[in-house]
Amino acid sequence: MGDNGGMIHRKVALLAMTIALSLSCVHADETKTGNAPKPEPAPVTGDAINPAWAKPAPVADPDALGRGIQRTMRLLATSTPQKRNHVRILFYGQSITEQRWSNQVADDLRRRFPHADLEIENRAIGGFASQVLIRPAEHDVYPFNPDLVIFHVYGAHTDYEEIIKRIRSRTTAEVLLQRDHIAEGGYDPSANFENKKPGYWDNFMNNEVLPGVAKKYGTGLADVRGEWIRYLETHKLKPQALLKDGVHLNEYGCYVMAQIVGQSLVYRPELSESADKTVRDYVPAKDVKWDKNRLLLEFTGNRVELLPVAKADGGTMRVLVDGKPVSAHGECFAFTRPAPNPWASPLSLSRVDSTAPFADEDWTLKVTEVKGTDPKTATWTYSVSGSKTGADGSGKSDAAFTSPSGRVKIEPESFFRGTSPALSVGHAITWRSYLLGTDVYTVTTPADPTKENAVLLAGGLTNGKHTLELVADGAKPSAIAAIRVHQPAYGR
Question: Which CATH architecture has domain 4-274?
Answer without folding.
Answer: 3-Layer(aba) Sandwich (3.40)
